[in-house]
């Protein structure tokens, strides 16, 4: 990676000369070179831009937000780059709240809804094109010759359907603002500092909660994006099965890298750290180290999802026999989890309580544990005391969307204690996990972990499994793997 000439961006276009890197190889910029770099560049303004595909949906979302908080200034930042080490940054991902309301994904952006009449006027504040007069575009570490071209403010207005202004002027403007203000916290310290005497934690949390609950029911655009994410994820799982022999020769990292390739080629990224858990690692719920061996005769628990370019992620899990065939005990445990998942999916329908699918799946698993003599019944006692949780561990699902655990800030009464509606998308993912050091189960159970997870859309008359393209039944999994391996 090349070393840029300067580490920081000026606050304004001409406030001060751009600082040089302490240990840069060039001591400075001659007047002749600075003048030379100002001219001789073609006009690259884009004139035929069309609005982003979700422009109508983002406008409707802003209208709903405006109606909820009349007369108040609302500030929703995208966030800033985060340093990975020294002068390198992590890949940027805009805040979900900002991306949901604008469709824009660039760092330092801020959406502001200013109260006007009975509603609001929206403005999107962005960094404009890099300045060529002061050399920012080629001397600054975030200049366009270093990190790539960004849209002009005029281009941004065409894309997002929102008037655009220079974000570098926003903090001063907010400091002078009067009247009630709310901000989405945790993304932009500079914007929060400008509002420090104008906001309260309680009022800001109400804004965050509203934006989380707004995503509980997905619109048609969102459902389409989730299906794209799932379809790419299905292909990623197929990719993995085809290279299990190479994973056996290396490690779980080969599985992680294989799936990541599909995610980057067809989407924006993985939606979360892929869990590529072979053997006893399958009993660690969020095993993302992915540095263990992959052995024939063991199970591979693969929990992974592709994130689309619009930030919608799949979340799918399959537990696969590395050699293509389940052992008798592996199949018994897998089939129990499959039966529990079937019961959970059947409980997903409009009007049902959100908890119903979890309760249905947990009942099946408790019945199996009693049947196998691993816990003393009756089943009602086991469920009342939660004794099955030693081996089931986690909840049976969660909302899914722009976050893998979407709508997390929603109120309990609208989420976990709420009622399912058409347009909601959730995962159903029961599991059984017998830890390698669990002396309460027979030795042959120890180190076996099984989870099956699918992404389920609530429809007007029931549900639709968005990830039905991946087989779930044990015999179908074996047939599918055999076909992929040729």
TrEMBL record:
Keyword Nucleotide-binding annotated: no
Cofactor entry: Mn(2+)
InterPro entries: Aminopep_P_N, Creatin/AminoP/Spt16_N, Creatinase/aminopeptidase-like, Pept_M24, Peptidase_M24B_aminopep-P_CS, X-Pro_dipept-like
Enzyme Commission number(s) from the entry: 3.4.11.9
Keywords: Aminopeptidase, Hydrolase, Manganese, Metal-binding, Protease
Segments for region (Disordered): 1-29
Catalytic activity of the protein: Release of any N-terminal amino acid, including proline, that is linked to proline, even from a dipeptide or tripeptide
Gene3D superfamilies: Creatinase/methionine aminopeptidase superfamily, Creatinase/prolidase N-terminal domain
Protein name: Xaa-Pro aminopeptidase
């Amino acid at each position: 990676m090349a070393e840029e000439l300067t580490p920081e961006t000026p606050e304004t276009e001409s406030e001060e000369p751009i600082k040089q890197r302490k240990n840069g190889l060039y001591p400075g910029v001659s007047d002749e070179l600075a003048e030379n770099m100002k001219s001789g560049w073609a006009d690259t303004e884009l004139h035929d831009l069309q609005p982003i595909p979700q422009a109508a949906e983002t406008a409707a979302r802003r209208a709903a937000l405006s109606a909820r908080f009349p007369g108040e200034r609302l500030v929703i930042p995208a966030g800033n780059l985060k340093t990975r080490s020294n002068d390198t940054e992590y890949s940027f991902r805009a805040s979900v709240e900002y991306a949901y309301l604008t469709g824009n994904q660039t760092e330092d952006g801020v959406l502001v809804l200013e109260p006007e009449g009975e509603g609001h006027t929206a403005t999107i504040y962005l960094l404009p094109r890099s300045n060529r007069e002061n050399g920012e575009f080629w001397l600054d570490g975030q200049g366009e010759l270093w990190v790539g071209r960004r849209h002009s403010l005029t281009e941004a207005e065409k894309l997002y359907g929102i008037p655009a202004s220079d974000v570098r002027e926003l903090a001063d403007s907010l400091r002078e603002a009067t009247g009630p203000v709310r901000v989405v916290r945790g993304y932009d310290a500079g914007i929060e500092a400008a509002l420090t005497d104008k906001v309260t934690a309680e009022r800001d949390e109400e804004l965050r909660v509203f934006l989380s609950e707004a995503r509980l029911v997905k619109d048609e655009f969102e459902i389409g994006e989730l299906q794209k994410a799932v379809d790419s994820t299905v292909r990623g799982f197929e990719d993995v099965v085809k290279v299990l022999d190479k994973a056996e020769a290396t490690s779980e990292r080969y599985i992680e890298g294989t799936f990541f390739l599909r995610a980057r080629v067809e989407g924006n990224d993985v939606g979360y750290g892929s869990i590529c858990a072979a053997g006893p690692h399958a009993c660690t719920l969020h095993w993302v180290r992915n540095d263990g061996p992959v052995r024939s005769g063991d199970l591979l628990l693969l929990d992974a999802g592709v994130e689309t370019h619009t930030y919608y992620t799949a979340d799918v899990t399959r537990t696969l026999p590395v050699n293509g065939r389940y052992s008798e005990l592996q199949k018994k445990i897998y089939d129990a989890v499959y039966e529990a998942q079937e019961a959970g999916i059947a409980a997903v329908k409009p009007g049902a309580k959100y908890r119903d699918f979890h309760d249905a799946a947990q009942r099946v698993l408790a019945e199996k544990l009693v049947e196998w003599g691993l816990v003393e019944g009756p089943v009602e006692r086991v469920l009342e005391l939660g004794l099955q949780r030693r081996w089931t561990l986690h909840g049976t699902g969660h909302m899914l969307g722009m976050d893998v655990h979407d709508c997390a800030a929603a109120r309990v009464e609208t989420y976990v204690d709420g009622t399912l509606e058409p347009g909601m998308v959730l995962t159903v993912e029961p599991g059984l996990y017998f830890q390698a050091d669990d002396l309460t189960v027979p030795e042959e159970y120890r180190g076996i972990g099984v989870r099956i997870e699918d992404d389920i859309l609530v429809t007007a008359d029931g549900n639709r499994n968005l990830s039905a393209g991946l087989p779930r039944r044990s015999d179908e999994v074996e047939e599918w793997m055999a076909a992929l391996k040729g």
